Amino acid sequence: MITGMPRIAIATHDFDACVDRLRTEFGMPVVDMSPGSVESLGARLAMCVPEGGSNIELMSPANPKAPLSQSLWRFLERRGEGLFALMLEAPDPDEEAKVFADRGLNVLPLMAGASGRDVHPNSTHGVLIRVYPVNSFSGVTAPSTSGLSGIMRVAVAVRDLGHARRVYQAGFGLACDPEREDAVRGVRAFICRPPTGGVIEFVTPIDAARSFACEVASFLDDREGLYALVLHATEDRDPTTVCGARIFFERTS
User: Fold this and answer.
1) Which region, left, alpha or beta, applies to residue 86 given φ > 0 means left and ψ of -120 to 50 means alpha?
2) Cα 89 from Cα 93, distance rounded (Å)
3) Distance between CA atoms of 140 and 172, rounded to whole angstroms?
4) 151/114 Cα distance (integer angstroms)
5) Which tens digit of pLDDT belongs to each residue from 3-56?
6) Which of 15, 197, 211, 250 has the most CB atoms around it within 10 Å of its CB?
């Protein structure tokens, strides 16, 4: 059983610049785990841990012989910097992987040195899913100095909402809201709700006259997959791109 969505990973070439931008421009608390992660996983890792929603994880390849680093290099060479993977948690990822495979999802062999299991994007509408044990990161959250939250919602751009619902509701066992039309953004959408962390919104464009729908349609011209993160903010902010990841802000009172 999936117990939460603890984080979304961003793959980046320039790890230090990405960490610095999140800290200085966005006032985010960032934990640099590189001293241990380079040795154990062959990649530089950092966790952005503001209060609310899911964390933002930064990943950058460091050791070309390490499987995780190789996976990051392939992603960066093919797509450039950006949203890399959606992390879920379960009490026993190996048992969960068996269930997923029985439900028709393409579960990958266990990666050397990994503590979780991967589901291939070709069975999840372009999203690399990584399932980790519960409480896979034990760091403490802290308020951002800019009033920004963690990831309250991750948007996944898809061409077939009905099929995406079957994959995530029946395949992963996630609770999903009814499909709805959002005339303001020009999309049809539905939301899946992991028990903890942020939520997952699946969107498909229906009105190209709307800027958000136009952006999603342009993204879908290339591929399906992780499109954007949505954070809560205490003041109005324009959408931006950080280390290749599109970020939108929703103002809260």
Assistant:
1) beta
2) 8
3) 27
4) 24
5) 999 999 999 999 999 999 999 999 999 999 988 888 888 899 999 999 999 999
6) 197
Burial class (CB in 10 A: 0-12, 13-18, 19+), 194: buried
| Residue 184: domain span | 151-251
CA nearest to 34, candidates 67, 81, 69, 8: 69
Q: Is the dihedral of CA 118, 189, 150, 239 positive or negative?
A: positive
Q: What integer is the mean pLDDT of 195-216?
A: 97
The amino acid at residue 52 is G
Residue pointed to by tokens 């979304």 = 8
Here the tokens at position 160 are 């077939």
214: pLDDT strictly greater than 80: yes
Measure the CA–CA gap between 198 and 69, rounded to whole angstroms: 27
Q: What is the mean pLDDT of residues 111-120?
A: 83
Q: Which two tokens stand for residue 233?
A: 């903010």
Q: Are residues 10 and 127 in the same domain?
A: yes
Q: What confidence tens digit (pLDDT) does each residue in 64-81 have?
A: 999 999 999 999 999 999
Among candidate residues 122, 166, 136, 144, the one with its CA nearest the CA of residue 4: 136
122 and 185 housed in the same domain: no
- Is 161 in the same domain as 241? yes
